[in-house]
Design goal:
This protein has 149 residues and is mainly alpha-helical. 52% of the residues lie in helices and 9% in strands.
Length: 149
């Protein structure tokens, strides 16, 4: 069975315990980015959109909407057992490298990187957007500017 962004988020929560929903979204984004850059294939099929606060996976957002903090066990339908050891290793490396940062700090980082900037296409910071950040754009950018670099 293929894994989803919810499965990855469930695993992130198992590793990090209670975190902000913004941080969860960004750790999932950077896990996808690292996997795309390192292996050329997606970790999960869901896309991220270029929201004001940085990349957001709508499928994940739907499960934590209205929450500031999220705890392990609070995501319905997530199953981290679908992840291979190799996939867990990618996520572990991202969480180890970025786990010290706040959700706001990770959001600010995405705002300086071309996948989010290009998808925003000149919109003002306050303007909403549901433009997809393509996986190809993520792969190309993070191969040149490593997530874990």
């Amino acid at each position: 069975m293929a894994q989803t962004v919810i499965d990855v988020a469930t695993y992130i929560l198992e590793r990090t315990d209670t975190i902000t929903t913004m941080k969860l979204q960004k750790l999932a984004f950077y896990s996808q980015a690292q996997h795309l850059a390192q292996y050329g294939v997606q970790l999960f099929p869901e896309d991220f959109q270029a929201w004001r606060g940085g990349p957001v996976a709508p499928e994940l957002y739907a499960l934590h909407r209205g929450k500031f903090l999220i705890r392990p066990g609070e995501l319905e339908g997530g199953d981290s057992s679908t992840l291979t050891d190799h996939e867990r290793s990618v996520i572990d490396n991202v969480c180890a490298a970025m786990g010290h940062a706040t959700g706001a700090e990770l959001s600010e980082r995405t705002h300086r990187e071309s996948p989010w900037l290009d998808a925003r296409d000149g919109r003002k910071p306050s303007e909403p957007s549901d433009t997809v950040i393509t996986q190809d754009a993520m792969r190309r950018y993070y191969q040149e500017h490593p997530v874990l670099g």
